[in-house]
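FIELD: query
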Amino acid sequence: MTVGAGAAAGDLHVWAAPAHWQAIDFLSDLHLAPDMPRTVAAWAQVLRHSRADALCLLGDVFEVWVGDDGRGQPFEQGLIEVLRDAAGRRPVAFMVGNRDFLVGPAFHAETGLIALPDPSCLLAWGRRWLLCHGDEQCLDDKPYQAFRAQVRSAAWQHGFLARPLAERVALARDMRRQSATHQALEQGMAADLDADACRLLLAQAGARTLIHGHTHHPGIHDLGDGLQRVVLSDWDLDDAECPRAEVLRLQRDGHLQRLSPEQACAA
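FIELD: result
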């Protein structure tokens, strides 16, 4: 099963959905890691048994991705098998986030996923929907934007990927610990997306709705003039105090529905 990918409107890539599709499911910010077995199991269930015609993963699917040469590690290989199986059942699109931006061509070749640039425009049932991960639009977080510019540069990535795999894995483990500490200290204070940047992107896409993740604060935000941004949920079913996992389903009539993993597989 294939899906058309057309030329961009302006500088935006366009992902075109066939007219016969009835629904598309969106997920992001799963941060899958070996210590999250319940989350991984629920994600695999949705990937394999969602009732939607296509799935779209909008970044931070993995807690960390140290390069495509690490995909043969036991945990990563298990995730690859789920993705390959899912892509054999229906189209699965993938956009990198701030945790898995080193996903590359070998990953896509092995899984069969559709690579979506950030941002991209979804053309479905005569309407346009803007898709992004969301971190690039958090303009008030200037330290992060400086860090993002550094690690997204070709020079930095070339240097990092030239390190031995074991060294990269160890560095990623340290970065994950530091990130967890930072998130605990900054809980509830994370920068949100800049409204003007969102409105500009929507205008470029000719869209009225932006769908994104990254902030871990699911909801709908009114941007004025009939424009809105819809925020996806993060996933963590291994958090005993606050378990969470949500699929956002876009239906052909334009209705957006938030579903549990179980509902996404049954509805």
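FIELD: remark
Helices lie at 37-49, 74-89, 105-111, 142-151, 154-161, 165-185, 195-205, 261-266.
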